Amino acid sequence: DHTVYILYSPSRKTVYIGYTSNLIERFHSHNIYGHGWTKRFRPWIIIYTEHFENKSAATIREKQLKSGKGREWIWNKINTELKNLGFISA
After folding, report:
1. What angle do CA 15, 90, 31 make, to 5 degrees?
2. Cα–Cα 20 to 30 A to 35, which of 7, 26, 29, 70?
3. How crowded is residue 81: how many other Cβ atoms within 10 Å of its Cβ?
4. pLDDT digit string, tens, across residues 33-47
5. What is the DSSP string of 5-62?
6. How many CB atoms lie within 10 A of CB 55?
7. CB 38 within 8 A of CB 7
8. pTM for the whole thing?
């Protein structure tokens, strides 16, 4: 199984989109261990996930979310649902 996820940094108002086969470990790598680009935007919260049976499907969805329309969808959801619910829905 693979998970596409969206992280949000409330303090920096930025998002990170990725995929992984181990969400908990990957979340720790972003938030606790602090590797790479995401280190300076901590703390992160997970605001959205989608699960896929294979890596190929997950990478396709990740690319869709990273597109202009995908990011527009994410920010619309952040500005409406996240403020009211604490997460965003499909």
Report:
1. 30
2. 70
3. 15
4. 867 888 999 999 999
5. EEEEETTTTEEEEEEES-HHHHHHIIIII--GGGGGGPSPEEEEEEEESSHHHHHHHH
6. 13
7. yes
8. 0.92
